[in-house]
Amino acid sequence: MWALLKRTLFPWSADRSKDRRGERRHLVTYQGKLTLQGEAVTVALEDATVGGTRLRSQRKLTVGQVVLVTFPSGAREAVCRWSRQDGSDWVSGLQFAREMSNEESV
């Protein structure tokens, strides 16, 4: 029931990319907000797991940088684990400061 509700509320696919994580990775296609050093910037969220997210933005993040990322369900503190340039954009992987419970992620 929770999975059905989650699919209804969020436009993400149940497709899982092949990677080393055991967490279910959801491809997402919505905009979020990233707050760093008091400034909010719009970002494109590309995927999400219980433990983190990948996003695309015009801002370079540095490894270890703490940010606040806002999803439709609310804001989460996260740490940048990697960042690379992709054309004029920056793609970064964020790890949440603590994992979301099922109730928080809906």
Question: How does this structure look, described?
Answer:
The chain is 11% helix and 51% strand. By secondary structure, it is mostly beta strands. The protein has a six-stranded antiparallel β-barrel. The chain is globular and about 30 Å long.
Distance between the termini: 12 Å
| Secondary-structure element pattern, one letter each | HEEEEEEH
Mean model confidence by pLDDT: 78
Number of strands: 6
The geometry reads as: globular
In terms of DSSP E residues, the strand content is over 45%
Describe the sheet with the most strands: 6 strands, antiparallel, barrel
Quaternary organisation of the protein chains: single chain
Helix proportion: 10-25%
Radius of gyration over C-alpha positions, nearest whole angstrom? 13 Å
| Strand line-up across the major sheet | 1-2-3-6-5-4
Q: Quickly give the structural class.
A: mainly beta
Number of helices in the DSSP assignment:
2
Secondary-structure blueprint of this entry?
Layout: H1 2-9, E1 26-36, E2 39-48, E3 52-57, E4 66-71, E5 74-86, E6 89-96, H2 102-105
Antiparallel strand pairs: 1-2, 1-4, 2-3, 3-6, 4-5, 5-6
Please name the defining characteristics of this protein.
6 strands, 11% helix, 106 residues, mainly beta, six-stranded antiparallel β-barrel, disordered C terminus, 51% strand
What can be said about this structure in brief?
With 106 residues, the protein is mainly beta. The protein has helices spanning 2-9, 102-105, and strands spanning 26-36, 39-48, 52-57, 66-71, 74-86, 89-96.
